Amino acid sequence: MTNLTGVLREIKAGALEKKGKDIVVLDVKKLSDITDYYFIVAAQNERQVKAMRDEIERRLKEKFGLAATRVAGA
Hints:
45% helix, two-stranded antiparallel sheet, single chain
C-alpha cells in the first residue's frame, strides 16, 4: 500500500522543483466518487505546466511505482 502522505509530499516537491506557486490540495473524498484529492498549482505558462507534470510523474513512478491514468490541465 502506498503512503498517501508521501505521495502528496512528492507531488508538492515536484511542483516546487519546477517553480509552481500557490499550491492548494483539496480533500474531496466526501464530495466525489472519482477522486480523493485535487492538487492545484499556478504556473506562468504551458511549458511550465508540462515540466511540472513530467517531474511529478517521474517522482511518483520512481518512488512509488505509480503512473497517472489521467491528467487535467497539461
